[in-house]
Amino acid sequence: MNMEKKTRSDTNLDRISDLPEAIRKHILSFLPTRDAVRASILSSSWRALWIELPNLDFGRFELRGFLPVGYFPISINDDDAARERRDSIVKKSEELYEFLDRTLGLISKLEKLSLYLPHYGVELKSRFDHWLDCVVSCDVKELNLEIGGNHDIRYSLPKSVLGVNSITKLKLKGCELSSASLVNTKLPSLQNLSLQYVYLDEGAMDSLAATFPNLEVFTFKYCYGLTRLEVSGLTKLVKVDVEHNAEHYEAVEIDAPNLLEFTYMHEGEWLDSFSHPCEIEVATCKSMKRLKLVGVLFDDFDLNMLLEGLPVLEQLFLYECDNLRDVCISSPHLVELEFERCRYLLTAAIHSPNLKIFHYADDDPISFKSKCPALKLTEASIYLKPDMKGDKWYVGLVKFLSKLCHSERLTICVGSEEVTKEWFFLSSSSFFFLHDRVDNFPSIMLHSCRLDRLMIFILWCHGGVRVCHGSIKDLIVPEKVRTKSRPPLRGVKHLMVELRASFMKHTPIKFIDALLWLAPCPESLSIYNGFIPVCKSLKFMYEKPLKGQKKCGCWKSPLIICWRHSLEKVLLENKKGDEDDTRLANFFSKGRLDGKMVCFVKNTRPKKK
Q: 29 pairs with which residues across the strands?
């Protein structure tokens, strides 16, 4: 039996090994490089096959999980464990280097190479240069090089890398790119350049256009050595992404007439509130369509001047711009606008007739102004996490919502910081899950799901509203505010509410009343819990209005007749039943302001066996 199994196993192995070489290469191409290398032990026909793969990733070796040698200086106080770990790292590093010595010279053709080297020292310079010479001789098109360690001693690329025609995408991390290294160099095919934690001297940027004349995408993250970042002479440049933290630039100046996208991000706190802001100059980028600014210390006037120079801007994202107070956005082609965590922003005057998407996130609602009574947006989203919610806060919320009531899709999140963080984590998956479940009619969904001890509520509407809040009370607008305000969601016809199980038996009347104030004349209201088979559905039937009657008189406007003046019948259907709907029946039966009784009919669905 054992001999039979062995023969069968050998036969299977031979069958795999006898596959055409092209098929075996195709199989290996789906594996991580490390596993593809291990496949060389299968048989002699597999031994060198991985070397012919077009894409090799040497950045995922086990060594990457250890701290670089540079973080383990030799000390007389080292204990045995520290010395043993340092020796292990040195040994694994040398094993990696010997492997690269043996194999990189065997490769003849290569599309993409990712190479991570755990540390650098001057004794490794010639070795690193030799490896890269081997790589560029293979006509590599995409090269990702990352040097680990503390970067006290930096690796500078050899001339061989900076003078080849094949490379179209180059990503460097933890290296040095000095002006001296760029003299008489040229990468004519390079289209995408990414520099992260790279040291550059003041003259390096002057050589950028000459060395990379066809550059289209430039990413510049956490680089150091410069006081000013100036990019010019790159006529094909379409996208620039600049990020930094402690390193402060006096100015970022981009002179690229065909630039379409620009992102500037400053992470971390500025030294103080009087820090001199980084001057951002993109006035010559007349073709820009997307602008994202994070942590920029400019004021309302600076923003206006910036936008005046961008006549075809379509997307504007302003995050953590704490010097903004009363902004005026006047961009005729603007389609998408976002404000997030701009802590002192009070008002936003929007003069953009083509605006379709609006997003706002902060503690309190701003005064959102527009030439039109209400913006007709495709999508709007609001995330609020106030410390205290008094009448004044609710007044601002109602006014804010009223400007967005005609949005095809409106997302509202009201709650604590913890709720908001969880909402950001869940929103994407929850949105698509609910989107697939909703019929194609204007509706509202209030959805809740439990995360440990945290309750999240989401109100979603296909052509309507989604609300996330930390407590039912967050959605109940105080009576004092209601009497002085108009219902902000007066056009909504269908509400779907998901509550936790404890609220299914005795749905709070105040909560129902609050929903019917936000949307005062719905056709249906469904309450359910997604984790248990319980559903409560309310259908509303109204009297036909008298001839010429367009409003009920509760508000001077809008022209609506609310449920308290026209409700005729409420049909309640329960799946599995509800122990007690007496309070709900009394609420609707006596809900009309003119004293007319409302017919309340309860129909309990039979339980499924």
A: none
How many CA within 13 A on the CB side of residue 282? 34
Spans of all domains in the chain: 16-82, 535-605
By DSSP bridging, strand 494-498 and strand 465-469 are unpaired
92: exposed, middle or buried (C-beta count within 10 Å: 0-12, 13-18, 19+)?
middle
State how far the Cα of 207 lies from the Cα of 492, in Å rounded to an integer: 59
Specify which of 116-120, 144-148, 191-195 reaches the highest per-range mean pLDDT.
191-195
Q: How far is Cα 50 from Cα 41, in angstroms, rounded to an integer?
A: 11
Strand-pair category, 454-460 with 444-451: antiparallel
Sheet containing strand 347-350, edge to edge, reads 326-329, 347-350, 367-370
Q: Could you give the C-alpha distances from 241 to 205, 217, 237, in angstroms and in order? A: 15, 8, 11
Q: What does the mean pLDDT of the chain come to? A: 78
User: pLDDT tens digits for 553-587?
Assistant: 788 777 788 899 999 999 988 766 555 678 888 99
Q: Please check whether residue 584 is in contact with residue 602, taking contact to mean a CB–CB distance below 8 angstroms.
A: no
Q: Which amino acid is at 190?
A: L
Write the DSSP assignment of 296-324 as a string of letters.
Answer: ----HHHHHHHHHT-TT--EEEEES-TT-
Contacts of 34 (CB under 8 A, 6+ apart): 60, 61
* The pLDDT of residue 99: 86
Paired with 297 in beta bridges are none
Q: For residues 551 and 521, is the Cβ–Cβ distance under 8 A? A: no
Kindly report the three-state secondary structure assignment for every residue of 142-196. Answer: EEEEEECCCCCCCEECCCCHHHCCCCCEEEEECEECCCHHHCCCCCCCCCEEEEE
Measured CA to CA in angstroms, residue 576 lies from 250, 500, 533, 608 at distances of: 67, 16, 7, 8
Structure tokens, 176: 């040095």
